[in-house]
Amino acid sequence: xxxxxxxxxxxxxxxxxxxxxxxxxxxxxxxxNQCKLALEYVNDELFDPRRTLTTSLxxxxxxxxxxxxxxxxxxxxHRVMEAMQSLSGLHVQAPVxxxxxxxxxxxxxxxxxxxxxxxxxx
Length: 122
Known about the structure:
The chain is an alpha+beta fold and about 120 residues long. It folds into two domains: about 5-50; about 55-115, CPE0013-like (CPE0013-like fold, Roll). It has two helices and ten strands; from the N terminus they run βββαββββαβββ. Strands 8-5-6-10-9 form a five-stranded mixed beta sheet, with no helix packed on it. It has a three-stranded antiparallel beta sheet with strand order 1-2-3. A two-stranded antiparallel sheet has the order 4-7. The radius of gyration is 19 Å and the shape is elongated. The N and C termini lie far apart (about 60 Å). About 20% of the residues are buried.
């Protein structure tokens, strides 16, 4: 039996409220999307939702106490809390440069955790 839901597409500034009818792992039909980009977004959001994880980590010996970090691509949404827990208590040694890989292959997701800010040594 098919289900219906509405997903707001965030691919472009229009933010279409796409109505989706789906069954199992397949989309039957969509409505109210103004472009084709919404179809891939809706499919991913329904069947494999991913999020970019952003947070801050403590810096030892740095001119600033924290460095901002993010994953280089989305990780499975249901694993975001697990990823955050794995970072609990992690400290980074200064200096840190934008793009430095802080944690490669975060919790086996294939996504690297990278610095998004420079922090000089104190």
